Structure formats: structure tokens, C-alpha cells
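Handout, section B. The chain below has 122 residues.
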Amino acid sequence: MSNGVVIVSHVKEIGEGIERLIREVAKDVPITVAAGLEQGEVGTSFEKILTAFESNTAETLLAFYDLGSAKMNLEMAMDMTEKEILLFDTALVESAYTAAALLQVETSIETIKEQLLPLKIK
């Protein structure tokens, strides 16, 4: 599968929980998580995000995040990878779940984008 999912959250348990949830519907989709800081602190890390990009076996990654500062770190990491990263400003849980479920059944990226439009955060 050439498409995967990256989840970025300020809290380790949130990222791990979302991954656990979406694995129920997308067991074949490559999913990586960058959540929390060292020592369990709340926050996001450019380095963890870049590692999540590089350790994901997919070449095109759909990236989802929880809060604005995560987006800044995502955008910096996007500049440091050769992979294609599609960043979504959408409700984290619902959009990551929807995208992963659709990737599992090999739905096109364009269709996934259309499906996620109602979940856009304004």
C-alpha cells in the first residue's frame, strides 16, 4: 500500500488511542504516531514527526493533528522529507478514522479529500 496515515497529538495517550481505534478498521494501512514529548510531557516534537514520516512504509502520507502548534511542527517536518505529505486541517479523530478506513478499501486520495471536507476546522 503506497498511502499511509500519520497522527500528531500533544498527548502520547491520545495519539496511541487514535491509532488503536483506527487499526480496528484499517489493519493493513501503515500508521505512525508522533505524540507527546519526552518524559510524558504535553507537546509535539519536530523530530518525532519526522521519525513518524520516515518510519511509515507508505510514500504518500495523510497527516492529522490536534492543535495549531502541532501544525507548525508538521509543516517544518514536511520540508525535510522526500515523501508526499497531505496535511489535513480537520477534526482529528473523525478524519483519521475516516481516511484510514477508506485507505483500507483502496479509495482514491481525491475521494478521501472530498469525504473529509465536512470535517474541516474553520
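Note. The chain has five helices and four strands. Compare this with the example in section A.
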